[in-house]
Amino acid sequence: MAQCVTAFKSMLQARLLEEKLASLYRAGGRIVGGVYIGKGQEAFSAGLAVHLEKGKDVYGPLIRDQAGRLAFGEPLLDTFRTYLGVITGPMRGRDGNVHRGRPREGMPAMISHLGSLLSVVNGMLFARRLQGRLGDSVGATSLGEGGTSTGAFHEALNQAAIEKLPVIIAIANNQFSYSTPNSRQFACGDLLDRARGYGVQGYAVDGTDLTACVSVFSEAVKRARAGGGPQLVVGSLLRLSGHGEHDDSSYIPDQVKSSPLGQDCLPYAESQLKASDLITDEEVRKWKDEFLMEIDAALAQASKEPTPDPFRENWRALSTAGLVEGQFEA
Amino acid sequence: MSMTYLEAIREAQYEALRTHPSVFLYGQDIAAFGGAFKATKNLSKEFPGRVFDAPISEDAMVGLAVGAAIEGARPIIEMQFADFSTCGFNQIVNQAATLYWRTNTSCPITIRLPSGGTAGSGPFHSQSMESLYAHYPGLVILTPATVEDAYWMLLDAVELDDPVIFCEHKFLYYHLKADQIGERTLPIGKARIVRPGRHATVVTYSAMVHESIRAAEELQKDGYQIEVVDLRSVKPMDTDTILASVARTGRILCVGEAFPWGGVTAEVIARVSSEAFHLLDAPPMRLNAKDTPIPYHPNLWKSHRPTSSSIGDALRRLLRY
Ligand SMILES: Cc1ncc(C[n+]2csc(CCOP(=O)(O)OP(=O)(O)O)c2C)c(N)n1
């Protein structure tokens, strides 16, 4: 499956990129604020995004979706420019780290409030349908299992179901919401109940298994494109990092880490794809070298670019210049 | 042909739907039923496929509007009552209000809030939310007091590329009538002097404009000429018109129906105190509702919010100083 190879490359690139971000964080000084990575969740993230087409589909990534972002086609530079807060990036130093996107290009920029992005994706699809240009495009977004406890998520899932919107919702059940274990997060036996409760098609998948993820999302995206309404996919996995780089995740018990949930999806995908003769050792080495060079080049580029200047900032929260108090010209 | 404030809101939505193909309406019970107050009566028939019933999900309603705006739509969201907009608060103040600033993507959505008290409506169907939303950067807050303003300002709201909180007052829905809707007069952001005077200024907005005019008429009998300024939009706030009026009268009372802690009236008084202290002949005053939830029984409700008589009393104190 060609898509598995594409997804694998995004996983590998994301892993290397996030290692770079984590080391910049540890070194201190250059990255303002925290670093939030998706180690262990790359297969689930990229497994969805490889099925999306930039320019046609909507993708609303969340906190652990670096791999999905790369698979969708977010430029590497957007990551560094946003983390470094330079004005050339999409957020221009006004927001940082994972809170980035290009809404008009089908990639809304998440706000921190968990659960609140799904209804925005719904609205993008809703408007396209109203304007007669939805075609067979779809929207996709993701959320952790903790985020599914929000009212916003439930309202939006129900809304998507009522409107039969072609939206794919990827729930990464990584067993912990920050430090909170699932036993304190929900009492239903299975997160797929969330789908059943709203009349939505649900799927369960081993989130550490790339080929399984690619194939489940392939089915979900196909059904959404064909008019089957919202599709909710729950992946079981573990985050192999802290919530952010400030967090040592010591609350995750060793027996969970050593369970199948704790399998690292990246080497597993590599061995799977090699066993199927889809990739070779040499290719993987070559990709690694290429990615590392690209990452270094992007970091070097972003590092040269200007950081925001409070004296040049227009301090304007409204697009209508004439309505900004104290500022009456554009 | 006379038109009520409520009919003006319906007509403005009709006009918005007619002239802007990108407008759609989304709210609870607004399609075939025409809305809890009938502000969208017949619009779903007149514009098939553009007026949608929403589930009781204020958060998702606003989220959907923001997404639609990203794609070039200009949604009008009806909250069934302003009070319920608290359930969509996060999407309003964090999603809609930050979109332009964070991503350079404009967010032309209009959220209609049937606001303010009417007798017997109680704590959860009477609230005035303008101060709450005005606190957040990235929102425009409109508070029309007249039939014409209800009409033109709603159309202005739809045409603005920014999120607008449109606070329409339920008390004015049926009582307030105009013979006809004239031409657009003032732009958004400009206050209106509804009654000129020289002894004191009342700065107010929405339904309190009418209570204040009645109070001014009472005081007229004692020879006082009270200037009444209708803010029209509380954000942006037309500080120039307020200060110019204070320059003429030397005394200011600011009246609002919202709760007393902080808010629009406090903002007006703060601006006047810091920018026109030297113009004041008396300490600036403000009058708001009481600091309790809004009571159900009319006896209590009438004392809870400012009325022409409590405004008149406040003005006499201000004039006596
Ligand atoms: C509405 C809301 N409440 C609290 C937070 C703070 N917060 C950020 S991430 C997080 C944990 C999220 O857990 P989960 O959704 O399972 O995703 P994960 O971090 O495990 O990927 C919390 C509580 C938030 N961002 N949003």
Task: Set out the fold topology.
The complex is a heterodimer of chains A (330) and B (321).
Chain A: H1 2-27, H2 42-49, E1 58-60, H3 66-72, H4 76-84, H5 118-130, E2 139-144, H6 151-162, E3 167-173, E4 176-177, E5 180-181, H7 192-197, E6 201-206, H8 210-225, E7 231-236, H9 254-257, H10 265-275, H11 281-304
Parallel strand pairs in A: 1-2, 2-3, 3-7, 6-7
Antiparallel strand pairs in A: 4-5
Helix pairs in contact in A: 1-2, 1-3, 1-10, 1-11, 2-3, 2-8, 4-11
Chain B: E1 3-4, H1 5-19, E2 23-27, H2 43-46, E3 51-53, H3 58-70, E4 74-78, H4 89-103, E5 110-115, H5 130-134, E6 140-142, H6 147-159, E7 164-169, H7 172-175, E8 177-178, E9 192-195, E10 200-204, H8 207-220, E11 226-230, E12 233-235, H9 239-249, E13 252-255, H10 263-275, E14 285-287, H11 298-304, H12 308-320
Parallel strand pairs in B: 2-3, 2-4, 4-5, 5-7, 6-7, 10-11, 10-13, 13-14
Antiparallel strand pairs in B: 1-8, 6-12, 9-11
Helix pairs in contact in B: 1-6, 3-4, 8-12, 9-10
The complex binds thiamine diphosphate.
Thiamine diphosphate binds next to strand 2 and strand 4 of chain A.
